[in-house]
Amino acid sequence: MSHLEIANAAVEAYGCLPKRLKVPEDAWSVFSSLVCTKPGERYPKALAIGIGNRCVGNDQADKGGLDIVADCHAEALVGRACRVLFLRSLRKLCCHQHEIFLATLAECSFHLVVSDSPCGDSSIRGIVSSDTSQATHATNWSGAPLLPISLLDERCGSGNNKISMHYDSRDSQVIGCCRLKPGRSDLPPDKRSHSLSCSDKIVLWSSLGFQGGGVLASLMGKLPLHSVIIMADH
Ligand SMILES: [Zn+2]
């Protein structure tokens, strides 16, 4: 099945949403969808849609007792929606049906469709001149800061488990580094997002699966992404 057919399935699913869930015509946002294809089935199926390009600052994300979704970028919302979908589906099914459901999922391929290049490394690219259609030496600025050592220590532990990485502001546009979500450069540190960039999350999903950890990982195994489709600008 072609990538165009898969992207069309995502766009058609968006077209079926009620107007209140769509982006107003005078606004702009990022659209993403997780689409599944199955051998023998002619049409791809959109499992989830996410729309958004905002992130909550760390000062707001860490409110005890409040259930706040810190990362509202479209790709992260799609990953979250799929995990909710899987959990709800499994809760409705009896043990025997679980096996059928999981066997069906194992036959499927999963494709992430995004309307723009994901933030982080994927947004670091040569800028093409509209006059000559040639790539220039200019590079698109990702705006996604490198993951600070202090956060690496917090997330990966210290001592023997500590990950040693080299950081230098001159490397800020170098690809292959872990990054946080981009944000306004004038924000104080506590108001900046501590969520990983979408590029880094997609790398995690591609290698470890987008089903997440915990119960779903042990029940479902690994559901990796088969492809990431970036839609062309119109
Ligand atoms: Zn993003």
Characterise the protein shown here.
This protein is α+β, with helices and mostly antiparallel strands and 234 residues long. It has one domain. Helices cover 32% and strands 16% of the residues. The chain has 7 helices and 8 strands; from the N terminus they run αβββαβααβββαααβ. It has helices at 3-15, 58-61, 74-92, 95-107, 149-156, 198-208, 214-220, and strands at 31-37, 45-51, 53-55, 71-73, 109-114, 126-128, 135-139, 227-230. A 4-stranded mixed β-sheet has the order 2-1-5-8, sandwiched between helices. Strands 3-4 form a two-stranded antiparallel ribbon. A hairpin with a 6-residue loop joins β6 and β7 (135-139). The structure holds zinc ion. Zinc ion binds at residues 73, 75, 118-119, 198. Zinc ion (ZN) binds at residues 73, 75, 118-119, 198.
